[in-house]
């Protein structure tokens, strides 16, 4: 089912940090969208891999973070901003406090990684602690 996914509308985010992006502004380049949460230790462990992907393919690959809260405590936008700064998340961050983005992606997990083609079609999807390394290998294979 996920293989037929087209990049959903991103305008349903409840907040934006670093930069507001839309599906339309991302089309034309491949895009990596990763779901994370401030209360997810595995997400934080995987962030250096995402940062490496972002830096290695700067100017070629769009990278977007979606913060998906796992509990009431995760709804604090200020805590998301503090955690993002602490972990050097410089890409646009969409905050999904209503889970409308998660629903549009059919996503229930963090961390989760979605790699989209320039036309917005899904190339590959991975979740869990090994997902970042798998998506790293895919971006290298496709963009090098």
UniProtKB/TrEMBL annotation:
Family matches, as InterPro entries: AhpC/TSA (IPR000866), Thioredoxin-like_sf (IPR036249), Thioredoxin_domain (IPR013766), Thioredoxin_ResA/DsbE_sf (IPR050553)
PROSITE patterns: THIOREDOXIN_2
Domain of life (superkingdom): Bacteria
Keyword Cell membrane: no
GO MF terms, alphabetically ordered: antioxidant activity; isomerase activity; oxidoreductase activity
Domain Thioredoxin: 1-144
The UniProt record lists the keyword Ligase: no
Pfam families in alphabetical order: AhpC-TSA
Keywords annotated in UniProt: Disulfide bond, Isomerase
CDD domains found in the cross-reference section: TlpA_like_family
Protein name: Thiol-disulfide isomerase or thioredoxin
Organism: Sporolactobacillus nakayamae
């Amino acid at each position: 089912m996920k293989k037929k996914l087209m990049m959903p509308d991103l305008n349903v985010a409840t907040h934006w940090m670093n930069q507001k992006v839309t599906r339309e502004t991302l089309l034309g380049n491949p895009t990596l969208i990763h779901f994370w949460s401030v209360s997810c230790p595995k997400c934080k462990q995987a962030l250096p891999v995402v940062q490496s992907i972002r830096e290695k393919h700067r100017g070629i690959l769009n990278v977007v973070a979606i913060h998906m809260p796992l509990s009431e405590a995760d709804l604090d936008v200020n805590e998301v901003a503090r955690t993002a700064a602490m972990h050097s998340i410089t890409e646009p961050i969409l905050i999904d406090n209503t889970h409308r983005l998660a629903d549009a992606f059919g996503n229930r997990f963090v961390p989760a990684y979605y790699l989209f083609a320039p036309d917005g079609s899904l190339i590959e999807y991975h979740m869990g602690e090994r997902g970042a390394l798998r998506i790293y290998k895919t971006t290298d294979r496709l963009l090098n």
